[in-house]
Design goal:
The complex is a heterodimer of chains A (202) and B (479).
Chain A (H helix, E strand, L loop, with lengths): L5 E8 L7 H4 L14 H4 L2 H4 L21 E3 L12 H8 L4 E4 L4 H9 L3 E4 L2 H13 L4 E5 L4 E3 L5 E3 L4 H9 L3 H6 L2 H14 L5
Parallel strand pairs in A: 1-2, 2-3, 3-4
Antiparallel strand pairs in A: 1-5, 5-6, 6-7
Chain B lengths: L18 H8 L1 E4 L4 E5 L2 E4 L5 H8 L10 E3 L19 H16 L2 E2 L10 H8 L7 E4 L13 E4 L2 H10 L1 E5 L2 E8 L8 H12 L7 E6 L1 H5 L2 H9 L8 E4 L3 H7 L8 H11 L12 E6 L6 E3 L7 E3 L13 H14 L14 E4 L7 H11 L8 E3 L4 H9 L2 H7 L3 E2 L20 E4 L14 E4 L2 H10 L11
Parallel strand pairs in B: 3-4, 3-6, 4-5, 6-7, 9-10, 9-12, 10-11, 15-16, 15-18, 16-17, 18-19
Antiparallel strand pairs in B: 1-2, 2-8, 13-14
Helix pairs in contact in B: 2-5, 6-8, 12-15
Chain lengths: 202, 479
C-alpha cells in the first residue's frame, strides 16, 4: 500500500450531498476486475457520461479539474452500499484523498484500508473550500497527514482529526493482515479459550 | 421449553452495559492504546460479488482460517428466471456465480447453490438457517448485513479488503461506535408494517443521523413486531448511516431460532441460552443518544426523493423546497424533484407508477408476501409487477399457502429467489424514466437501472400501487 505523508494536488469540488456509492460507481460495474483498463471511466459514471457514452458537462470532465487528485465533497459522502469498488474507481483516477464533512462509515473504512485518505472538515469549511475551487479552477490543496492539516487554495490551514491507528496505517502504508498477524499469539490464546467456552458456536 | 429472557435489574451503573457492548466486549482479542480492538468474528456470509477474494488470498499465499464458519450463496447476479447455473447466459453474470461455486468446492465451505432449496438472498438465508444467532459477531461484504441485528446478533457490513481479512484471520479491527437507542412506543395502526416504521425513523434522524453509531431499537412497537418485521427494521439501519441495528433477543427470538438447521441443540442450546439470557441492555446502561418515536402517529409511507430520508405519508403532498430554510437541503430537494419528475404540492396518491417490485432483503420473507397477497386477492395488476421471494424456502412456503396463485392470477410475475430489481444487475431493470413502487431499500439515482425512479414502500403499499396504477392507501384495499 502506498504510504500517505504530505500530498499536494489539484482539487475538484463535488457539490452533491448524500452522494451514495451507487453514484460513485454504478452496480452494473461491480463484476469487473479492478485492473480492468476501463475502470477509470466507471467513477461517477452516470454523472459523467450520457447513455451514448459521450461526456456530460459534469465538473470532473472539465479542464483543469480533469487533473484533480483530491475531491472536496458535501455531507454523507459514500453513504449506502459497502462496495469497495467505489474506492477502486477513485484510485483508478489517481484520487489520493477525499475531503468531506461526513462519510458513510463503511466507505470511510474502505478508503483507509486502501491508503486513500478521508479527511473530515466541518460543513462550513468544506463549503468554503468548494467555493474557492469553483472560483479558481485548477487550484491546489495540500494535505499533511502527520500534522493533520489541510492547506486550502487560500493557503489557510484547516486541522482535522483522525484515529491514531488509521494515521499510522496510512503514514506507513500498512496492510491490515500483516498488522493483525503481529498479534498471532494473542489470537491463538483467545481462540483456545473461546472455543472451549462457546462450544455452541462451533 | 426455556426460561424467559429477563433484564438484569439494578446492575451498578459503573458496570452497566448495552446489548451491543456485551457482545462486542466478549469478542475482543486485544485492544490497542488507540482504542482499536481486534474482534473475533464468529461467522461470515459471502455472496457472488466476492468470489475473487479467494483467488486474491491464494495469490498472496493465505488460507481460509475457519471454512466451517463461512456460508455462501449467490444472490446479486442470479437471474430470477434461472433455476440453475447453466440457465444463466454465458458472460460475467454466469462467471460470477460459477466463481463462487468453484471456490466453495475447492475450499470446502458451505454453499447453497441455485439448485439448493435453501438458496436465496444472503440476509434471508442466514436467519432462516439458524446461521444467524443472538450474541454472535457476523459479517458480510454487504451493507445490509445490519439485518441480522434483529436477532440480537452483532452483525455489520464490510468492504472487500475486510472480507479477505476475516477469511484469512477470522478477526477484524474495529473501534467501538457510539451508542444510540431508538425507542418506538405506542401501537402501530392496523395495516401498517415495519417498513413504515423504519422509513419514518430515517425521515426523523436523517440519512446520516446514525453515522458513527450502533443503534439499538427498543420500545413496545418493536417488541410487538415479529422477527421478520424486526429484520426489516434492522435491514434499513444502514440507510440512516449506522452499520449496526440491533434488537435485544426475547422469547420471540428464541422461538424463531429454536430448531433451525444450524442452531445449537440439547446441552449446546442450554449453554447458548445461559449467555443469551444476559444480553439485553442493563436498565442502567447509558446511551450516547436517545430518540423516541410514537408508533401511533405513523402512516403508510412513500419516499419521493433519492435518499430514503425523503419520505412522506400517503395522505401528504410532495413537499415544497421553498419552505425549507436550509439552503443546502433546499438544493438537494430541488435536484431530487427534478430527477424524480415531481412537482411540489402534488398529492402522493395522484402519482402514477409504471412498475412494481416486491422483493429484496428488506421485504421478501413469507410475511411480506402474505401482506402483499392480502391486497392482490381478487384483483388484477394494471402495471407490470415482479414478485421475487427471498429464498427457495420462502418460495416453497408461499406456494404451499397458495400465494403464488394469488400473484399469478392477479397478473404479477412469480420468480426465482435473488436480489433482483433491488440492485438491478441480474437483468431485472427499469427503463430510463420509469417510476417504480418498490419494497427494496434504496431510492438512489439509477439504483434500479439508469434513469430509474424508485419510490420505497411496504409490501402492502406496493401491491396497492400495482392494482391501482398509483400510490394508494393499502388500508382501503385490504380484505
Amino acid at each position: 500500500m502506498q504510504p500517505f505523508r504530505r500530498f499536494s494536488a489539484v482539487a475538484v469540488p463535488i457539490d452533491i450531498p448524500n452522494c451514495d456509492t451507487d453514484q460513485i460507481i454504478p452496480a452494473r460495474f461491480l463484476r469487473r476486475a479492478k485492473d480492468d483498463p476501463a475502470y477509470a471511466r466507471f467513477l461517477l459514471h452516470d454523472l459523467r457520461f450520457h447513455a451514448d457514452d459521450t461526456e456530460t458537462s459534469f465538473i470532473f470532465n472539465q479542464i483543469p479539474y480533469t487533473n484533480a487528485q483530491i475531491l472536496v465533497c458535501d455531507i454523507n459522502w459514500g453513504c449506502g452500499s459497502s462496495r469497495e469498488a467505489a474506492v477502486n474507481a477513485l484510485m483508478a483516477n489517481h484520487i489520493r484523498a477525499v475531503i468531506a464533512p461526513t462519510f458513510g462509515d463503511i466507505h470511510y473504512s474502505n478508503c483507509i484500508k486502501n491508503g486513500l485518505l478521508p479527511v473530515r472538515l466541518s460543513a462550513a469549511n468544506c463549503n468554503h473550500i468548494r467555493i474557492q475551487l469553483h472560483e479558481s479552477p485548477g487550484a491546489s490543496i495540500t494535505i499533511d497527514l502527520d500534522k493533520q492539516a489541510v492547506s486550502g487554495p487560500d493557503r489557510k490551514g484547516y486541522m482535522f482529526d483522525i484515529d491514531p491507528m488509521d494515521k499510522i496505517r496510512l503514514l506507513h502504508g500498512l496492510d491490515d493482515i500483516s498488522m493483525t498477524l503481529e498479534h498471532q499469539a494473542e489470537i491463538e490464546a483467545f481462540e483456545r479459550d473461546y472455543r472451549k467456552k462457546n462450544r455452541w458456536i462451533f | 421449553m426455556w426460561e424467559p429472557i429477563r433484564k438484569v435489574v439494578n446492575a451498578p451503573r459503573s458496570h452497566s452495559k448495552t446489548l451491543f457492548e456485551k457482545i462486542f466486549d466478549r469478542h475482543v482479542i486485544v485492544t490497542r492504546e488507540s482504542g482499536d480492538a481486534l474482534l473475533f468474528i464468529d461467522r461470515q456470509l459471502i455472496h457472488d460479488l466476492h468470489y475473487r477474494s479467494f483467488e486474491e488470498l491464494q495469490a498472496v499465499g493465505r488460507t481460509i482460517r475457519y471454512p466451517d464458519q463461512l456460508f455462501a450463496t449467490p444472490d446479486h447476479s442470479v437471474p430470477t428466471t434461472a433455476k440453475k447455473l447453466t440457465d444463466i447466459p454465458q458472460g460475467e453474470m454466469r462467471d460470477t456465480v460459477a466463481g463462487l461455486q468453484e471456490a466453495a468446492e475447492r475450499i470446502g465451505f458451505t454453499h447453497f447453490d441455485m439448485t439448493d432449496p435453501r438458496h436465496g438472498i444472503v440476509h434471508v438465508v442466514g436467519p432462516e438457517q439458524g446461521i444467524t444467532l443472538p450474541g454472535l459477531t457476523l459479517v458480510c461484504g454487504d451493507s445490509h448485513t445490519s439485518t441480522h441485528g434483529a436477532l440480537g446478533c452483532l452483525s455489520f457490513g464490510i468492504g472487500s479488503t475486510e472480507v479477505k481479512h476475516v477469511l484469512a484471520t477470522q478477526t477484524l479491527w474495529q473501534r467501538k461506535p457510539r451508542s444510540m437507542r431508538i425507542t418506538v412506543d405506542g401501537t402501530l395502526g392496523l395495516g401498517l408494517s415495519a417498513k413504515d416504521i423504519i422509513l419514518t425513523i430515517i425521515r426523523h434522524i436523517g440519512a446520516a443521523g446514525g453515522t458513527g453509531y450502533a443503534i439499538e431499537y427498543a420500545g413496545s412497537a418493536i417488541r410487538q413486531l415479529s422477527i421478520e418485521g424486526r429484520m426489516t427494521i434492522s435491514n434499513m439501519t444502514i440507510e440512516a448511516g449506522a452499520r449496526f441495528g440491533i434488537i435485544a433477543p426475547d422469547d420471540k427470538t428464541l422461538e424463531y431460532v429454536y430448531g433451525r438447521p444450524y442452531a445449537p441443540t440439547d446441552e449446546k442450546w442450554e449453554e447458548a441460552m445461559a449467555y443469551w439470557r444476559l444480553l439485553p441492555s442493563d436498565d442502567t446502561a447509558v446511551f450516547d443518544k436517545e430518540i423516541n418515536i410514537n408508533a401511533a402517529a405513523i402512516e403508510p409511507t412513500v419516499t419521493w426523493g433519492n435518499s430514503p430520508q425523503f419520505c412522506v405519508g400517503i395522505s401528504d403532498v410532495i413537499p415544497d423546497p421553498a419552505s425549507e430554510a436550509d439552503l443546502a437541503t433546499r438544493a438537494n430537494m430541488e435536484s431530487a424533484l427534478t430527477y424524480m419528475d415531481l412537482l411540489p404540492g402534488t398529492p402522493v396518491n395522484k402519482i402514477d407508477i409504471d412498475r412494481v417490485f416486491i422483493g429484496s432483503c428488506t421485504n421478501s420473507r413469507i410475511e411480506d408476501l402474505r401482506q402483499a397477497a392480502e391486497v392482490f386477492k381478487g384483483r388484477s395488476v394494471v402495471v407490470p409487477t415482479l414478485v421475487v421471494p427471498g429464498s427457495g424456502l420462502v418460495k416453497s412456503e408461499a406456494e404451499r399457502e397458495g400465494l403464488d396463485r394469488i400473484f399469478i392470477n392477479a397478473g404479477a410475475q412469480w420468480r426465482e429467489p435473488g436480489c433482483s430489481m433491488c440492485v438491478a444487475i441480474n437483468g431485472d431493470v427499469l427503463s430510463p424514466g420509469q417510476r417504480c413502487a418498490s419494497t427494496s431499500n434504496r431510492n438512489f439515482q439509477g439504483r434500479q437501472g439508469m434513469g430509474s425512479r424508485t419510490h420505497l414502500v411496504s409490501p402492502a403499499m406496493a401491491a396497492a400501487a400495482a392494482v391501482t396504477g398509483r400510490f394508494t392507501d393499502s388500508r382501503r384495499l385490504s380484505s
